[in-house]
Amino acid sequence: MAHNHTKHAKNLAHQGMDRHEVSTTLIKGAVMSAGAQSGKTLMSTITKHPLLLVGIGMVAGYYAHKHRKDIIASVTSVGDKGKDFVLQQKENLEDIVAETKESLE
Asked: Which of 35, 10, 32, 34 is nearest to 22 (CA)?
């Protein structure tokens, strides 16, 4: 593992990065790798213990029920923003088509 990081550091240094940039890049990579590994471990544990999975589902359900009004409001807001975006794009497209017709005449 250390060999790969050393090789990667030399490659980054060769690309013109200074020591700070190289160390920052290596730290980011190590954190992402650790996060992925802990995620695998967590999922492995959950799948091996069905009661843990049921408990997590109950907790998620409780919080979803507790915050249901906020969830519904945010989903509605996102839906309204999506509709507004589509209407705005439709108007922009109509303007472009009208300008094109005017320039052809």
From this structure: 10
